[in-house]
Amino acid sequence: MRDVTKENITDVFMGYMGPDMDPRLHEVLESLVRHLHDFAREVNLTHEEWNKGIEFLEAAGAISDKERHEFVLLSDVLGLSSLVDMLHSSPEGTSSSVLGPFHITGSPPLPVGGDLRKDFTEQVLLVEGVIKGPDGAPIPGATLDIWQTAPNGLYSSQDPDQDTYSFHGLQTVGADGRYGFTSVRPVEYTVPSDGPVGDILRACGRHPWRPSHLHFIVEADGFRPLVTEIFASDDPYLDEDTVFGVRRDLIMNYEEMEAGTFPEEGFELSGKVTDPYLKVRFDLTLVAAD
Fold this sequence. Notes:
The protein is α/β, with parallel strands linked by helices. 24% of the residues lie in helices and 20% in strands.
């Protein structure tokens, strides 16, 4: 095509696509390029701005490694991660929420009632609930991948002073679908702002804070996997999550409990809790696989 113009370049691009192209790839790529070209025309994108964008992408790639995923973080702060979650969440189940850039695979087994707190001295948090289907029936054998920040606001993958799997555990529930573990209250924290995503936040006059939360990945045979987070109802950043992950049904309430009410059995810390503790009850609902 010799007569490419700013008006027809999008159609010319699509005309170059081969007849055997995957239909879904064709649909997605056509829409992406149409929106990208329309964006450039709408803002009259300059060479300087285009170069700045390329430099940003190169910087995001340069700072990324197996433990830091700057492109995931970029997707998070732009709201894209949450939008994709919401597009594919079912109203019958617990809402999904962002995976975030700090999940690590291979969490060690954590028995029901197991402890994530270990040697940390902060107040004990007891978390329990039932993994169930939309009909309320428990789902036996479901697995729950759990992770959270340490009291210093860092995930283990960010903090060389923590063990690799500090505050990580993989729990398999029994016939009653019940999960349960002890930990410490997670804290609000800032997403990494020392890289190109931080530059974007500052340029927009935005803060990098996330409300405190627990992360879960729930899986069971015959059900759609659920990636989600649950957030404290009293967190100061609940309405200003910089990655847009909060949903109304993902808000949990901490109960202040007296030491003498801690379960006498069923938990690793049973018989060892001598101070007031916090308790959370939160059920997780999965929907049937498509």
